[in-house]
Amino acid sequence: MKRIILILTLFLVLINGIVFAAGKTTKQELTVPAGDGFSIKAVLEYPKIKGKKDYSTVVLLHSLGYSSEWWESLPSDLINQGYAVLKIDLRGHGKSVYNSKLVRTSWKSMTNSAYAKYPDDIIKVIEYVKKENTKKSFFNSWAIVGSDIGGSTAILASDKIANKPKTIVLLSPVIETKGLYIPVSLAHLDNVDIFAISGTGEQSGTEAQDYLKKFAQATFATYTSEARSTGMLMLKNDTSLSKIITTWIGEYLQ
């Protein structure tokens, strides 16, 4: 409860205009080989700050059936706070739909064995960013925001990667979807605080939060958005939510 009060207090500060001065950004469009002939598309964007070489980074993983274009104002709000933002189109979504032979694959026709590759896809993109940016650092301090299957992918990838994120934000969390079962991996994240958000009247998300909280080894805070919607659509229907997420992340990233 104390943490949520702090979030709301900082949120009021943010909406009164004390934010990083918006300016020019650097944007990199990435094509990352997944190792099985598939290509994962992503966009890395960060503010141009003179002399800055080490950026805290926020990875955004979208909902099932959507793409990284649906994040509303969240990417710009994060960039305006001085963070780098890495938006990834999950396999079978957005621009991540082609293999090396340019054969198109949609999420609608994918099997659970393809969805099981999601965590490794994310890790490959992160490692690619680190390798290709030798003059700047992006993952010394980082966080993830994931919506439904994106949140599940965030938990599973965080369990596998050596350098853990500082915090994970889950929009409309799920216990299992497309074979991605997360409670066991969540129990492995000893020092990663979780912030789970569900919409008003969203019974499945609330039930998932209550169940997942039993497995959390660190803080598992919850918040109910005023939006009567789920996943990424909450950001569209509740304009305060982006700032609340940005403020939560601000407690962990410098």
Question: What is the fold's blueprint, element by element?
Answer:
Blueprint: H1 2-15, E1 25-33, E2 39-47, E3 57-61, H2 74-80, E4 84-88, H3 112-115, H4 118-132, E5 142-147, H5 149-160, E6 167-171, E7 176-177, E8 180-181, H6 183-188, E9 193-199, H7 203-213, E10 220-225, H8 233-237, H9 241-250
Parallel strand pairs: 3-4, 3-5, 5-6, 6-9, 9-10
Antiparallel strand pairs: 1-2, 2-4, 7-8
Describe this protein's structure.
The protein is α/β, with parallel strands linked by helices. The chain has one domain: Alpha/Beta hydrolase fold, catalytic domain (Rossmann fold, 3-Layer(aba) Sandwich). 33% of the residues lie in helices and 22% in strands. It contains nine helices and ten strands. The protein has an eight-stranded mixed sheet, sandwiched between helices. A two-stranded antiparallel sheet has the order 7-8. Strand 3, helix 2 and strand 4 (84-88) form a beta-alpha-beta unit. The model is unreliable at 4-21 (pLDDT under 50).
Task: Indicate the overall shape.
Answer: globular
The number of distinct structural domains comes to 1
Poorly predicted tracts of residues: 4-21
Quick check: average pLDDT? 91
Major sheet:
8 strands, mixed
Distance between the termini: 23 Å
The CATH superfamily title? Alpha/Beta hydrolase fold, catalytic domain
Number of strands: 10
Question: What kind of assembly state do the chains in view correspond to?
Answer: single chain
CATH topology: Rossmann fold
CATH class: Alpha Beta
Structural class determined from secondary elements: alpha/beta
Strand order of the largest sheet: 1-2-4-3-5-6-9-10
Examine the secondary-structure arrangement and name the CATH architecture. 3-Layer(aba) Sandwich
C-alpha Rg (nearest Å): 17 Å
Q: How large is the count of helical segments? A: 9
Order of helices and strands: HEEEHEHHEHEEEHEHEHH
What helical percentage do the residues reach? 25-40%
